């Protein structure tokens, strides 16, 4: 994938102007903000994916490996992994299938519940996720393109939005 050509004008600002010209002034700022967030997500995901691709990972698979690496025993029930990643169980199953084929995770029987399958990170999976995390920290997470005060404010704003939208209910979240 080649880098997109930098535009001479901000297309989102142009869209905002069109919204206003059509009489949708009350929605123009919201449209611009939502569209900017979506475009920012695309830019950041492209940066993340370029780091992860040489490790044979997508962001979804990286997130699952990272989650498993944080688990005390290195394993979680599939349904718990789905809930913690906030994705449909089918998405976790697809990621597990691919990670299992790569030797980075394995499925195991739950010791206390024969109906439940665990997904467990392998030693190779731990190595891959550790290397990928160090690279992401050095190239993307450690320098995401925002100053420290901007990151603090952004985390507060997005955390509040997510909590208010029902993404989580922990009222102790420091907003």
Descriptive account of the structure:
There is one protein chain. This protein has 7 helices and 3 strands. The two termini are 38 Å apart. It has helices spanning 11-21, 25-52, 59-70, 78-85, 89-101, 123-141, 148-164, and strands spanning 75-77, 105-109, 117-121. It has a 3-stranded antiparallel beta sheet. Helix 1 (11-21) packs antiparallel against helix 2 and helix 4 (78-85) crosses helix 5 (89-101). 62% of the residues lie in helices and 7% in strands. It is mainly α and 175 residues long. The protein folds into 2 domains: 10-55; 57-140, Arc Repressor Mutant, subunit A (Orthogonal Bundle).
Give the oligomeric state of the chains in this entry, treating copies of one chain as homo and distinct chains as hetero: single chain
Question: Helical residue percent?
Answer: 55-70%
Look at the helices and sheets and give the structural class. Answer: mainly alpha
Count the DSSP helices.
7
Please name the CATH architecture of the largest domain: Orthogonal Bundle
User: How many beta strands in the DSSP annotation?
Assistant: 3
* CATH topology annotation of the largest domain: Arc Repressor Mutant, subunit A
Q: In total, how many domains does the architecture comprise?
A: 2
What profile does the largest beta sheet have? 3 strands, antiparallel
